[in-house]
Amino acid sequence: MLAGKIRTIYDLAKLAGVSAATVSRALAGKDMVNSETSERIRKLAEEHDFRPSALARNLRTRRRGAIGVVVPLGHDRGQHLSDPFFMTLIGYLADELTERGFDLVLSRVIPSRDDWLSRLIDADRADGFIIVGQSDQSGVLDRIAADYLPMVVWGGFVQGQVHCSIGTDNFLGGRLAMQHLIDRGCRKIAFLGNTQAIEPSLRLEGAKAAIQARSDIELMDTPTHFAPEVSGTDIATFLTQIGDPPDGIFAASDVIALTAMQVLAARGLSVPGDVRVIGYDDLYVAQTSVPPLSTVRQNIAAGASHLVGSLLRRIAGEQTGSVILNPELIVRETT
């Protein structure tokens, strides 16, 4: 009998007088071990309250039991993980993964080299990866996706892309937002967002499509960061430069829209009296703002479910296609 507690399969193997591999197979229920030996090993394990660790099981199956969730910020390096959109999506992903027995390993990446994703994969700490947003890294994602199956991306879909993406129809969402402002009588409209990333660029393209046949609409594309501490300065500078304010604002995110409302209020402009404002995402803060924010809803919960489901199928060796979810116009009091 061994002194002390049985801590590893090697301790149990020594006690049973067999190899560690035999113990591993017996506890896993493999029929390669005869029934008498298997029963003896299982009884010894019960007597000594021994349970093989999840790490040991993962090493035997070459599974890590963890999924990497990565947020690349090449287009807007000042944006933080505390951004309400990131927190909402990551929360849903954590719930989905936990229910399926996986841990979530979170990384915020500021890409300075094209091998940032290769390095994460080569570290071999995760069974697969969910990338939150393409940022300006679509080329990197396509290159990795050509040879690496267990990866899915939250983001916009562009014809010809190699990586599997799941996200809202951003073009349609942009068109819905712009058409709504036009229907509300807006004729001088500002788009606020950083179009270096695919999703905001598609939203702007949709907005342009909505006014394609209208010669009476002025659309101003105004580069705006997503981080509130920077976007507030961007918006204030823009308003100063143009003199007369726009009568409508389409913001590429709810956070930018709410920041715009603060800047407008500081200048004595009311929403929606002087300027109508619509955002994008339909986060909880959009519902609770004063006044409540009109926006384009992304079904983030459904997106998280699709991301996890698709990734698990890919981990199992199955190819999956991109998914484009329908956006929904949500009209509240800011338009």
Short description:
With 335 residues, this protein is α/β, with parallel strands linked by helices. It has 13 helices and twelve strands. α9 (198-210) links the parallel β6 (188-193) and β7.
What is the second-level CATH architecture of the largest domain?
A: 3-Layer(aba) Sandwich
User: What is the count of distinct domains?
Assistant: 3
Q: Any idea what the shape is?
A: elongated
What is the third-level CATH name, the topology of the largest domain? Rossmann fold
In helices, the fraction of residues equals 40-55%
Mean pLDDT: 91
Strand order of the largest sheet: 2-1-3-4-5-11
Indicate the CATH class of the largest domain: Alpha Beta
Cα gyration radius (Å): 26 Å
**Assembly state here?**
single chain
- Fraction in beta strands: 15-25%
pLDDT < 50 runs, ≥5 residues = none
Secondary-structure element order, as H and E?
HHHHEHEHEHEEHEHEHEHEHEHEE
Organism: Sphingomonas hengshuiensis
GO molecular function, one term: DNA-binding transcription factor activity
Domain HTH lacI-type: 7-61
Keywords: DNA-binding, Transcription, Transcription regulation
Task: Describe the 3D structure.
- The chain folds into three domains: 53 residues, lambda repressor-like DNA-binding domains (434 Repressor (Amino-terminal Domain), Orthogonal Bundle); 129 residues, Rossmann fold; 128 residues, 3-Layer(aba) Sandwich (Rossmann fold).
- It has 13 helices and twelve strands.
- It is of the alpha/beta class.
- It is elongated.
- Keywords: DNA-binding, Transcription, Transcription regulation.
